[in-house]
Description:
The complex is a heterodimer. Chain A has helices at residues 4-11, 19-28, 42-52, 84-101, 142-145, 159-167, 172-175, 186-202, and strands spanning 36-39, 56-61, 77-81, 106-111, 119-128, 132-139, 150-154, 206-216, 221-223, 226-230. By secondary structure, chain A is of the alpha+beta class. The model of chain A has no long low-confidence stretch (mean pLDDT 92). Chain B has a six-stranded mixed beta sheet with strand order 9-8-11-10-12-13, sandwiched between helices. Chain B has a six-stranded mixed beta sheet with strand order 15-16-14-17-18-19, sandwiched between helices. In chain B, helix 3 packs parallel to helix 4, helix 10 packs parallel to helix 16 and helix 11 (327-336) packs antiparallel against helix 12. The longest helix of chain B has 29 residues, at 429-457. Chains A and B meet through strand 5, strand 6, strand 7, helix 6 and strand 8 of A and helix 7, helix 8 and helix 16 of B.
Amino acid sequence: MSEGPIAAAQADGRTTLTEAEAKSLLADAGIETPAFSVTADSDAAVDAAADIGFPVVVKVSSPSVTHKSEWAGGAGVAVGLDSAEAVRAAADAIFDAADARDIDADVLVEEARDVDAGTEVIVGGLRDPSFGPVVLTGLGGIFTEVYEDTSHRIAPIDAAEAREAIEELTAIELLEGYRGREPADVGALAEVVAAVGDLVDEHEAISEVDVNPVLATEEGAVALDALVVLGGE
Amino acid sequence: MNLQRLFRPERIAVVGASATEGKLGYEAMANAVEFEGTVYPVNPSGEGEVFGEPFVESVTDIEETVDLALLAVPAHVVPDVVEECGEAGVGGAVIYAGGFAEAGGEGEELQDAVVAAADEHDVALLGPNTSGFVAPASNLLASFAGGVERLRPGGVTILAQSGGVAHQLAFSAHREGRGVATMVGLGNRANVGFEEAIPYFDSDPNTDAIVLHVEGTDDGRALLEACRESDTPVVAYKVGQADVGDFAESHTGALTGDHALYTAGFAQYGVPTVESTTELFDGGQALANSPEPDGANVGVVTAQAGPGIIIADRLQRAGATLPDLAADTQDEVGEILPGITYAENPVDTGRPMPEFGDVVEAVAEDEHVDAVLVYELFEEALGFPQETLDGLAERVDKPVLFATEGPVESMSGDLDALRAADVPVFTSPERGADAAAVLARYATLDDAAADEEVSADV
C-alpha cells in the first residue's frame, strides 16, 4: 500500500496524513515503527492492546486533529497504559471527546517504547524550491532548537552518505556513547535518513516529512512519531 | 545552447555604440576595439566613425555574420534589438542594462520578452544587468568597465553572479600578478546561467579551474549537477546566510537554511566552498596551476616557526591533515640540515638557508604527502628556492604552494619569476594554508562525489 496512505489523503482533500497513515508509509519504506493498530471502538482498542502487549500508548487518530497531545484537555494522548482497563478508559475518553466536538475519530493503539533507553533524533525531508528533495537530521530537543545542530543533504542519498551527515553533527558523541551511555546503532539511523530522502524523492506529492522523534538505541532506530505533509496545489 | 559564439566570437557588434566619451556606448566600444577580430559600431543615429570604424545602422545591415552583440542600449529597446540580432544570425548578446527581472513587475515582463526573442533565434544572452565578460588571452573586452584591458591571461575562469564581484575578483588577481582565463558576470542569467556556463568553460582549453560566486539560483540542483559533471575543478563562494522564507514556518523547515543546503550540496557534489573572495581566487589559483592532489595530506616546510604554527593550525581546522613524514624523508632532511629544528611535519629549518630548496624537495618526494606548502620570508641574500620550485610540482605530480612575505620592492622580481614558473604564490601564512586546504578538501570531496556516482549507477 505504498501509494495507499497518500492516495487516501488526496481523495479526502487532505494535505496531511494521519499518524497511522504516515507510519504505514514509513514502515513500507523499511523504517521501523512501533507495532500499532487503528481501531474504531473501545473494545477493538482493548483487543489490539492485548495483541501488541502492554504497556501501550493510546492516541486520537483523526484528520481533524493535528496537535494530538493538546487536544481535548490532554485526552488525545495517553501513555504508559499497562492494563485493559486503562486502555478502555483512554479510548472512551477519546471517543467521548470526539463526539462532543462532532468529529470523526479513531483510536491509535501503539506499543510503548522507553524513550530514556535511547537518544531522540529528528529526521526531516523537504521538497525545496531550488534543490528539490532534501533531507536533514539532527539530535532532538535543544540540539536542534538552540544549537541548530542539523546536517543537510540533497536527496536521494545512500546509507553511507547519510552516515556522513549524521557524523557531521556536533552532538555525534552523544550517539556514539559519550560517558558510558550505550552507543546507538548509527547504521540503522543512517538507513532511516536515507529512507526519508527516498520517500520525498519518490513521491512527488510529498512536500514534507517530519519524523520526530526517531529513537536511536543500541538495537536500532525506531520512528516514534511522524508527520507527512502533501503539496497544497 | 552553444556558448562558443558568445564567449569566443570572431566578429563583434556594439549596438548603441557612441562617439561621445563617457557614454556606456563609448566605453563599450573603446574596450571592444582592442579585440583582434572585426568590431562593428551599430547606431542608427551614428555618423561617421568611432575608433576608426564606420557606424552601421543595424546589425541586419552587416554583411558578415556577427557572433557577438554587445548591447549598450536602454532596457526598453532590448527586446527589439535582440529580435534584430536573431534575424541577423547573431549567436550571443551581452545585455548591460538593468531594470529587468531584478526590478520586479514590468521588468520581469521585459525580461520574458527578451528571453522569448532570444530563444526563438537561439541567441545566448549574458545578463541582463551585468558588466559583461573579459577574456584577456584574445583581448576580448566585452565589459564597459575601465581598466579591464590591463588584465592578463591565466588559468582561472571566474563565473560570478554579480558583475561587480567578477570585476573585483579579476582586479585583485591582477594586483597580485595573476591572470584570468575568462571573467564573467552572469547578471540576471536570463538564458545563460551557471548550469550552461560551467559545462562550456569545463571544455574551454584555456580554463584550468572555475571559481563561482553564487548569491542564489532557482535551480540549485542543476548548478550542483553541472559542478559534478565538470572535469575542471570548481570552487564556490555562496554568499548570504538568510533562511528560505517559504520554509521558515514549517517545523523542520525552520531548521533548513537555504545557505546550509548550498553548503551541504556543494560538498556532496564535490565542490569545496570558501568564505571570501580572497580565498575563492586563491583556491582557484592553486587548483589551476597544480596537478590534482590525491588526498588531504599536506607536508609543510617553513623557515620560521611562528608562521609554520599558524599554517599547521589553520590547515587542520580547515579539513587538511598533517601526516608524519616517512622515516627516510626525516633521515634525508637530517642529513641536509644536521640538528634541524623540527623534522616531522611541519619541517622547520629555523631560518632561511641555502639548503632550504633541498628540504622542500625531500618533503615533496615523501610518499605520505599529497600536497606541499612552503613558507619562507624573503631574504635578499638568498632569494627564493627558484630552481627547486620550477617544475617541482610536475616532477612529483602533486601541488606545491609557496607562501611568503617581504618588502615588495626587493622581492617582486623573484615573485614574478615564481609566478612565471606557475608556482601558486601567496603573501600570508593564512592565505597559503587556506589555499592548501581548498586543495585538500577538493581531493577528499572529489573522491566522495565520484564514489556516489558509481554507486548511483549500480
